[in-house]
Specification:
By secondary structure, this protein is mainly β. It is built from no helices and 5 strands.
Length: about 100
């Protein structure tokens, strides 16, 4: 059996297996323009607050260490939600 040190790098891959350039990198769960929903809490005119699922459009995305973050666009106002704050992918669900 051959020693790994004697096999050229170009021949070390097994059939059907490709080496990843960055094994820890993962694809984003949502694309720009995708509709997503997230739980939000907003004040009501009577002074109470209400918690509900609100729909958004993904405005931008960025990787952050081992997860993805997204800026959300409010489809009713056209503006970024909470001034462009970045939200974790784990807080979002497909709409």
């Amino acid at each position: 059996m051959a020693n790994q040190g004697t096999i050229p790098e170009s021949q070390r891959d097994k059939s059907g297996v490709n080496r990843s350039q960055n094994a820890s990198e993962r694809e984003p769960g949502f694309q720009i323009g995708d509709e997503v929903k997230m739980v939000v809490t907003q004040p009501c005119p009577d002074g109470n607050t209400r918690t509900f699922h609100k729909s958004f459009l993904v405005a931008d995305s960025r990787p952050n260490q081992s997860h993805w973050e997204y800026q959300l666009k409010d489809p009713f106002t056209g503006g970024l939600w909470q001034g462009g704050k970045w939200f974790l992918e784990t807080n979002l669900r497909p709409a």
